[in-house]
């Protein structure tokens, strides 16, 4: 199973958001994500305070939400 961290931020333009997704996040030995809410919140705070990104709708000014998206796939042996 693959896990991705997806974060959304508010920008200077009212009602507009900026999304950022990070693939291959930390996992434990069972393949489960090990990020905590505190880890993600701190990361998002750093992105906002350091002005790491500038979007088409202006500077990132706040946190909106975040989630871990898990996906799995199944291969077929087609001959």
From TrEMBL:
<protein>
    <recommendedName>
        <fullName>DUF2922 domain-containing protein</fullName>
    </recommendedName>
</protein>
<dbReference type="InterPro" id="IPR021321">
    <property type="entry name" value="DUF2922"/>
</dbReference>
<dbReference type="Pfam" id="PF11148">
    <property type="entry name" value="DUF2922"/>
</dbReference>
């Amino acid at each position: 199973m693959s896990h991705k961290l997806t974060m959304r931020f508010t920008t200077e333009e009212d009602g507009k958001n900026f999304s950022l997704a990070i693939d291959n996040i930390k996992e434990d030995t069972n393949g489960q994500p090990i990020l905590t809410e505190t880890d993600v919140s701190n990361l998002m705070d750093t992105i906002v305070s350091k002005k790491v990104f500038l979007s088409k709708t202006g500077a990132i000014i706040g946190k909106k939400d975040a989630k871990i998206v898990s996906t799995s796939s199944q291969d077929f042996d087609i001959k």
